[in-house]
Amino acid sequence: MMTLNLIDAVPSVAMRPVGRTCRHEVGEKVKAFAEVAADEREITAMNEPVSASDDAATTALDAVVIGAGFAGLYALHKLRDDLDLDVESFDDAGGVGGTWYWNRYPGARSDTEVIAYCYSFDRELYDEWQWSERYPRQGEILRYLNHVADRFDLRRSITFDTTIERAWFNEETNRWDISTSSGRVIAAQFLVCGVGLLSSTNYPDIEGVETFAGQTYHTARWPHEGVGLEGKRVGVIGTGSSGVQCIAEIAPHVGHLTVFQRRPQYSVPAQHGPIPQKLLDEIRRNYHGYWDSVRGSITAFGFPESDVPAMSVSAEERERVFEEAWNIGGGFRYMFATFSDIGVDPEANEAAASFIRQKIAEIVKDPVTAEKLTPYDLYARRPLCDDGYFDTFNRDNVSLIDVGVQPIRKITSEGVVTDEGVHELDVLVFATGFDAVTGNYVKIDIRGRGGEKLREQWSDGPRTHLGLMIAGYPNLFMIFGPMGPFTNQPPAHEVQADWITEAIEHVLEHDLGTIEPTVEAQNAWVGECNEIAHGTLFPKIDSWINGANVPGKPVSVMFYMAGMGAYCDRLRQTVETGYEGFALRGENVGA
Ligand code: NA7
What we know:
Elements: H1 28-47, E1 58-66, H2 70-82, E2 87-90, H3 99-102, H4 123-128, H5 138-151, E3 158-159, E4 164-170, E5 175-180, E6 185-193, E7 215-218, E8 233-237, H6 241-250, E9 256-261, E10 267-269, H7 277-285, H8 287-296, H9 315-328, H10 331-336, H11 346-363, H12 367-372, E11 384-386, H13 389-392, E12 398-402, E13 410-411, E14 415-418, E15 421-424, E16 427-430, H14 439-443, E17 445-447, H15 454-457, E18 476-478, E19 484-485, H16 489-509, E20 512-517, H17 519-534, E21 559-560, H18 564-576, E22 582-587
Parallel strand pairs: 1-2, 1-6, 2-3, 4-17, 6-18, 7-16, 8-9, 8-16, 9-12, 10-11, 19-21
Antiparallel strand pairs: 4-5, 5-6, 13-14, 14-15, 20-22
Helix pairs in contact: 2-16, 7-8, 16-18
Bound molecules: ligand NA7.
Ligand NA7 binds next to helix 6.
């Protein structure tokens, strides 16, 4: 049973308007932090160049937002423009965009349909931006996010090319003492992390990689100026969403493409094309109803999910439904709009999987290659869709190396070595994914009450309440943090940033110091996430969804899998109960 802990809150606190606190020099404790941070920077500076300034004067802010992607931009807008707070945002990228700033590999595009892969909070924004395609390319999404930044004048509050290195909670001031890679020290009452679910890159530890004489790239750190691949011998390691897109895009242009596949993938056609005008008209006619339905659905992808169990219909009907979904396109549609139980019932899952297997056998002409490309495990990773991926392996200039059977032994100056010998390459592309969900949090030196280090607390797997906050880390909010909803991201970002804004407003209006979840509430949420996830098939398969893609990372449940509608109900419930499950503490001593 979750309870509200209103510890130390003065019952008759005067309500004060939410608004700016003035910038001020802070006390000795913060200065001590600044000195430690400066010392540590000096040590860092001996190893890597940082543009540190020796000016340790501390800036006082109401809030710091980390990240200028979908989540961070919206959070900045809400806190600065709705609550009138003194907020600054930071991003280590050179511009806005988050994942869409970095992921510039050939073929990079959203594989979520754009009707729900955008903001909904501003009707005029939705109406004025004309998407060209059902699944926009990276460049188009980046232009959209730049447009949003300009439209809401967000850029003036964002510092780019700057990493947040440390964030320590100061129990005397109830402020987060934050230091940046440029040497700034900030004391902020609230810290909002929009650091991205999939942005901390995963480079496999393969012997000899540094000896490779050609060029190496990671899909998520692709050079802005592009890479000339024409006529070259290119190798791609990894066949997840990024690999599948990149492989199909570059194959016609390279001299020879060698694909190193560890495990074969279930993928269905994306069926790229324009967005049907009829669908756009329908959304515009019923704008709020449409977005309510997105937020009330399970996956928030903007299409109706099926409520029909796969085994409740005849084999012929199942075939018809799968064929129809194959032709409409979209991985999430195939998994969630065909039948209601593909992610939970092994028999339903096998029916969906075996349909894809048949398609691979039909598309890929060489039976040996087709067999290598055919998965036999559960269809329970993040569903993929592609643009001619399987057909790519019919090309004469493409070869497939099954490194699940013949592991990569090492990399030499010439290329990648397996038991077959050396695969000679000019360019090697790592499409090896991310230290997902928690990776960007543990990179920052975050310390909560009592100096507890987040990376140590999460060493057996993350623990949060509602994917939004962590017990012992007051006033630290996460957008799409671990144990948030397993859904399409932009609608979830909005829902979470709205909740965070309201919670901050509540703290300020009541002149409180902090809000944080109780340990009991967090334990209950972790337990619930585990129970729900283990009722599905997703934890049974190793992937980034449960941390199993990064060697040494604890395998754990990292999502709330009961759906967006249920998640929104839970958020609403916390507000309606006056933040049941959260401790609201103290006065705003730092103000
Ligand atoms: P993913 O989906 O994590 O895919 C990474 C791929 O890299 C996957 O095929 C891995 O094989 C492969 N991989 C990772 N390490 C190795 C080593 N050491 N050797 C061979 N192959 C390896 O990352 P993506 O970037 O494609 O997509 C991540 C998400 O970003 C995606 O779901 C979207 O939401 C956007 P494995 O399958 O693990 O055997």
